[in-house]
Amino acid sequence: MSRYIHSILHAVGAVVLVVTVMAGGTLFLASEDVRGAQETPPETDPGYRLGAEDVMLISVWKDEHLTKEVVVRPDGMFSFPLVGDVQAEDRTVEEIRDDLVKRLTKYIPNPNVSVAVMKVLSYKVYVVGRVNKPGEYLIGHYTDVLQALSLAGGLTPFAAENDIKVIRRVKGQQQVFPFRYGDLRKGNDLEQNILLQRGDVVMVP
To answer: Could you tell me the CATH superfamily of domain 45-119?
Structure first.
């Protein structure tokens, strides 16, 4: 009986790790104990460039008033105490951190600034047409065409696998990239498996 009670007490006091694998293989790690749950940031590529709706946690060491969760606005900016508006869109967290350090130096000697992506909400791609699960996909990391097709459950039997197109809009101009799945499956033209940009549409006729 004492061994049973000891095991219960051990289980109550232990830290429980919960691992959840999201679509696309993004790994989120959260821990919780008897004091409650604490969310940890998602694993993002260091080269990830932020976009509107992404959420960051910015903190300045030893200054709780300068620890703040910020959201990238539709204009690509976010606001932070002392420095005002800061450009975030199409920049990495390291570039944003360097910018904040430079600006905060006017007010704080040698500021120790950390920037972490808490939520990736801007990187959305769309897979439409003859796939098993067409729709919008919110992904926490850069994804290529094959990975996007996999997220959409693959092609249906009647899909025109060599007539797939990636549609992209850049500054109002539409660009189209052909994708021949049949050729790629044979190991040919691997360079056509491009990385998708946010907002890209993979169309499978």
So the answer is: wza like domain (3.30.1950.10)
